[in-house]
Amino acid sequence: MRRTFGTYLAECNVQAHAIMEAMGHSSMTVTDDYVREANKKRIAVDIARAINEREAKRDAMKRRAAVRVVK
Prior knowledge:
By secondary structure, the protein is mainly alpha-helical. The chain has one domain (2-66). The chain has helices at 2-11, 16-23, 28-66. The chain is rod-shaped.
């Protein structure tokens, strides 16, 4: 439960020093683990979002190319 709470605080962009105090850590070593884990999740979400946007653009281009007006 503590690890989940620490990671949640980091994911909510709470400052590392505040997380350290809230968790009762005597040094930043463990707190840095929470921040590092939250950053990894952020990067993964950003990558997934970029891939989804690129695929959506590609699909839109395919649909646009398929519709043609013939006179």
